[in-house]
Design a protein that fits this description.
heterotetramer, A: about 400 residues, alpha+beta, four-stranded mixed beta sheet, four-stranded antiparallel beta sheet, 8 strands, about 15% strand, B: about 375 residues, Butyryl-Coa Dehydrogenase, subunit A, domain 1, Butyryl-CoA Dehydrogenase, subunit A, domain 2, Butyryl-CoA Dehydrogenase, subunit A, domain 3, 3 domains, 11 helices, 10 strands, globular
């Protein structure tokens, strides 16, 4: 066992740092640093992706032949860590991390040739069409129907919680092409041009007043069968492949460490309850220390998963354990951020941050009151309640782990 | 010892509940909150004229109802359950408690609905401390001169007058300031619960002699304790709705072929929410019934309540969202609005940490 | 609403205080103050009961005609509070609080005349025979059999977790007299002379090394049918009546307040982590304040339940809510006690306390090291893990409440 | 970066596991713990002669194995899983780490099993602070004189020698003292986890010059950190058994017609126990792998670990008892013994509060 990064890994880290120092503009840094949720706004995300594309670093986890970087898991972890530390906005995950692997694993040669380069370049900006009104955690119960009609599938239905659908030109969807004995059967994985006739995107306003998610209405949308990934009716296999693709790559800890750094920095500048600096307040200092300790344990847990995956071992419960713990700490840290903000944490001032979408509640423009950090705090707190809900609620994750434990 | 409501209190609650259902339904309330002013003049008038509750704590001699703290608790609970955005707490609770003999005019104006107040006590450098630090009142030949800056004064943008804390030398005091007075400027903004607040700058504001409404630290602390206690009562209504909505939603919402309320983990979570609500209710009763006790006993009961209520607001609020799943993350369902109100209540008049420490200090002194 | 005690109630409190001040010997006080679990040792409990019997205060919740005090719920609460504050040992609950109500509610005139006076005087010291190896939370599944044979029932089986059975001369048992469609049917409530042939009591050693609970083996024990309470086969009704008897009387808060007083007193005498007194340590002071705040809320919850019960209202979920919260705080306070004890909390020194039964682990006699409070702390911590298990685990209580909530 | 065990380490673990199953089974271990001496001479000899692990950290030149910290972690984990009561940590970990050049004799005696040590660092007035306060070492013409009193020195009643911290003026130092030396007296007692400890009085104890084994605060803190890290490794074994036993018990135990492991609330509780164990494992790995780092980095990793492990010990321990129901409240089932060991580990070498504060101070300084 060895906890130190190797000389090669350190050299790689330095290369990454130099790249980030050179390429990040002030505007991009601000966009990464003042996010009001975990999502960057699409405009900056695309601008940053263009820079990465030039360098060939958009999709580290992809195979090299499709444009991946050929990095080890450790290098990928280092990249994420440094990227977050430098304040760069994240590349939108819907294309590169979610749809890309599906195409790579189950797509046709034509699909790979057409979609993957455009995904890397950012020409295609992707959204996801999975959840429905009656199908959240129980995704397999989805009802959005696609009927075969010659060379096309005709899709009618409704999708929810589609992040950035309002800014996307392509979407990957799960639709029902047949109703069979098990709900997982008869589902098809389909790529839809979001400019197709019959596609309507309606903004969903989040509790924080932002339009990040959307509803998508599909009304007899004609989609060529050539856009089916895998076989018709075999979409569940594709969707599961996608979930398994990034094993060993979970990296919550780097972002959480930066969050804590920001909060500590802020707390060293404002007054605490006992008259001194907030950072010197015993209860607050205790809470920060506990959060740091928790993040440290999570970080090593991530290292261990990475090391095990590298050695060909990867306990099935790991992704669910990571998701639960990562999001619990993420939410806990938004609580600390809100606590640090004190009374200014009550003010609704999305204009102080960089929102991932249009803001729909009444709010000011330009100037804001109090510190920027305090203005962002309630946005983050409210937005991050979603973290324990999306991608399988933490209750569902515990069900999954219990099953793996043989209970 | 008696913890039952009187028939009058039950009637008051029922009347208020019916009135608000008719006049402050969810869509109406949301529209009011998002209007330019952020509040409803007609609803305010209704509270005064139709219900008479603006004067609930105003003595009968001054045109009010002369009600007691328990009556007010009943009212605040219902206002919480209906997410009222109008400045009732600031006016009918804090205002009515601030004015004593010599201020019958103001008390009567409160009861009539002509006065809308904001309580500007917080400053950038005081965090949750109750007393003023950088807002200074100076004696002038005709009265007072106020200078300073107040932050996040809730309801200030919709107030006719501000109750401003300032210190005269070392002595804290409370002043009544017209919102439009020369030297008063506001930078207004919404709060995350759909209300309005402002940072208020006081620049050589000239006030008449009788603008000093109260003096001494105890007077200000008493007002903050009354405000916190009644905010706790409001929280009970807010939390009750979240629990009821969550129970209803989980009984309706089906996943994997069954109502999610049938899953044991979900059931136990809602049991714990219910438990938190019962404990918070108990803490609020004690705080409200202690408002007339000695300052130390009152403060101890209020701080204990605020810690208990903050924890209940967080637990019930977060779990209400969690159990609503994706639906909890849209602005369309009422529960997200209650969640944000509960989040604000958590730290209003002091965070749980602040009150726990105050409680410990008071317990040590006792 | 009114939170103050009435003048009558205050007068009653003063009467109680005077009685306690006069009657409690130093030995009895020590026995109450240095308990290593929630149970007093039988010898002191009986000595104290004799004093109470003389005064007529053994069974406040009983009807006056059977020897009750005729006190209001508030007076009963005051009595408990003052009794605990004065450090008096508790009277054994198995007779007066558990078996007594069953006999009062469902017993024959002969049973009342024979058992109730002896229960009050302490001549009969009772134990309970409910739980079995396979029947803990699922009590109705019990298997201990009683066969009818002339005027007798012949009982064979095994019972677990019988508190103080080693010191008892009578026991109340649930036994199966028939196997019917529902497990609750065919159960009989039976009073058994513990000196009967065929009764064997085997000590159960607790994790803290004490013998408080016991196993009871019943081997063809002949019990006159006259000892059946209620009808044969109707024991479940009797057992449920017993559970309902003390509604509105829950009083965890008074004892927990005294516990916290003791811990604070101790913490003001020992050193804390930051060099000053432990009581001045920020983290410890915070934890104590939180516990006091929690107990305050519970106290009013108890007052409310008492007030509601007095007014004829008593929500069905109340006993379960009280049990959960009371035991959670009870356990939390044992954690604080252990934390206060610091390093001496590791030492196993039951000889510093008054155990409710013989101690079976190797330990010293007489002298102990460190403060007495520290020596008792680990005993309490370990013993009180039982609080969330006995009388229906807290998980079962939550199931009960969920059912009442209509879930 | 690499978090995999070597083949040698896996073999070591398997060999140790098999040996302890044969020679330290639950009833044997319990009988040893309750015997007059509280430990087993034959098992101790076996650790030295059959397994050779008493010298695991002793350099090969001194007759040891020359193993590293990861090797020791593997061993401690297994000892935890088997609830060893013999003074292995005190002797083979702390002792072997305390002795440097010039103490080859003692190192060899450790490896041979001839030395059994106790680490007497705690004092009545220092709570969890690592450094001595009221134990004083004075220079004499031939060596040292020690006076003072140590509390709850675990393993002292079964030790041949004590490692005693004392201060020389302001400088802390570590001394090797024969357990039977003139002036050394013990008041011995069991600990709640079935081990033995003693309060040790040192009354003008005369020591030779070379009895001073180490000097300076850093030397003592390093020893405590090594001890805490390896105690953390032991905790992993203790917790793993509790989790495994609980899973097995809940799958077997039936209530209301089904295995209690089939109830969702019970399942999620065990998932959370598993989570705590994984996080504790991660924290221990970091602490153990940081033992050779700079003092600040080592201390930070160890304190973080101790907080994480304490919380895991409490959560897993309490829930293991809870899910065993009444069975968890008897001395007969193994889980109660593991629970008591876990409870002791929570505060050994400092409570979670103490380490959280140390961590915060170190983080601030960094």
């Amino acid at each position: 066992m060895d906890i130190a990064w190797s000389a090669d890994e350190i050299a790689f880290r330095d290369e990454v740092r130099a790249f980030l120092a050179n390429e990040l503009t002030d505007e991009l840094r601000a966009s990464g640093a003042h996010m009001t949720s975990v999502y960057a706004d699409p405009r900056h995300a695309r601008a940053w992706q263009a820079i990465l594309h030039e360098k060939g670093w958009v999709a580290p986890s992809w195979p090299v032949e499709h444009g991946g970087t050929g990095w080890s898991l450790a290098q990928r972890y280092i990249w994420q860590r440094e990227r977050i530390a430098a304040g760069a906005p994240p590349v939108s995950p819907m294309g590169v991390q979610m749809c890309g692997p599906a195409i790579i694993g189950h797509g046709s040669a034509e699909q790979k040739a057409f979609f993957l380069p455009r995904m890397l370049s950012g020409e295609h900006f992707w959204c996801q069409g999975y959840s429905e009104t009656g199908s959240g955690s129980d995704l397999a119960s989805l009802q959005c129907r696609a009927e075969e009609d010659g060379d096309d599938l005709v899709v009618t239905g409704q999708k929810l919680w589609s992040t950035h659908a309002h800014a996307a030109n392509w979407g990957f969807f799960l639709v029902r092409t047949a109703t069979l004995d098990r709900p997982q059967k008869g589902i098809t994985f389909l790529l839809i041009d979001m400019t197709s006739p019959g596609v309507t995107v309606v903004p969903t306003v989040s509790p924080a007043g932002e339009n990040i998610q959307n509803e998508i209405f599909l009304d007899a949308v004609r989609v060529p069968k050539a856009n089916v990934v895998g076989a018709i009716g075999d979409g569940w296999t594709v969707a599961k492949y996608l979930l398994d693709f990034e094993r060993g790559g979970a990296a919550y800890a780097p972002g959480l460490q930066i969050d804590l750094d920001e909060i500590e920095q802020f707390a060293s500048e404002v007054r605490g309850d006992d008259g001194g600096r907030l950072i010197d307040d015993a209860a607050f200092a205790d809470a920060i220390a506990q959060a740091r300790i928790d993040v440290m344990a999570l970080e090593i847990f991530e290292f261990r998963a990475m090391s095990d995956a590298g050695a060909g071992r990867y306990p099935a419960a790991i992704p669910s354990l990571m998701k639960i713990r990562g999001t619990e700490l993420q939410q806990r840290i938004t609580e600390l951020r809100l606590l640090a903000a004190g009374r200014y944490g009550l003010a609704y001032q999305p204009q102080a941050g960089v929102s991932a979408g249009p803001v729909h509640f009444p709010h000011g423009e330009g100037d804001f009151v109090g510190p920027r950090e305090a203005a962002i705090a309630p946005m983050r707190y409210v937005s991050e309640r979603a973290a324990s809900i999306y991608a399988g609620t933490n209750e569902i994750q515990r069900n999954i782990i219990a099953k793996i434990m043989g209970l | 010892m008696d913890f039952t409501f009187t028939d009058d209190q039950r009637q008051l609650r029922d009347a208020l509940r019916g009135y608000l259902q008719r006049n402050n339904g969810f869509s109406v309330r949301t529209a009011n909150a998002r209007s330019a002013s952020g509040w409803s003049e007609s609803l305010w008038r209704g509270l005064a004229d139709d219900l008479g509750i603006l004067g609930l704590l105003v003595p009968e001699a001054a045109g009010g109802v002369g009600g007691n703290a328990t009556d007010m608790m009943v009212v605040m609970d219902e206002l919480g359950a209906n997410l009222l955005v109008e400045p009732y707490l600031e006016t009918a609770v804090i205002g009515a408690s601030a004015f004593g003999a010599g201020h019958e005019t103001e008390l009567a104006a409160i009861a009539r609905g002509d006065l809308r107040l904001a309580f500007a006590w917080a400053e950038a450098e005081t965090r949750f401390d109750t007393l003023p630090r950088d807002t200074i009142a100076l004696r002038t030949t005709v009265g007072w001169r106020l200078d300073g800056r107040k932050i996040v004064a809730t309801a200030a943008p919709m107030a006719t007058h501000l109750l401003v804390t300032a210190r005269i030398g070392e002595e804290p005091a409370l002043f009544l300031v017209e919102a439009g007075a020369v030297g008063v400027s506001q930078q207004a903004y919404p709060t995350i619960d759909g209300r309005r607040a402002a940072d208020v700058t006081l620049d050589a504001v000239a006030l008449p002699d009788h603008a000093r409404v109260a003096r001494g630290a105890e007077a200000i602390e008493r007002l903050c304790d009354i405000g916190a206690a009644m905010l706790g009562a409001e929280a009970l209504g807010v939390m009750r709705v979240m629990l009821d909505d969550t129970i209803a939603f989980t009984k309706e919402r089906r996943q994997f072929g069954q109502a999610i309320a049938s899953f044991q983990v979900i059931q136990h979570r809602m049991v714990d929410m219910y438990m938190q609500l019962e404990l918070a209710t108990s803490a609020v009763y004690r705080a409200v019934l202690s408002l007339g006790a000695s300052p130390a006993e009152r403060a101890r009961a209020v701080s204990a309540m605020k810690v208990t209520v903050a924890s209940a607001c967080r637990f019930i609020g977060q779990n209400a969202i969690q159990l609503h799943g994706g639906m909890g993350m849209t602005d369309e369902v009422a529960v997200t609005h209650y969640f944000r109100r509960a989040t604000v209540i958590e730290t209003e008049f002091g965070s749980a940490d602040w009150h726990r420490r105050r409680f410990a200090a008071l317990s040590r002194a006792a």
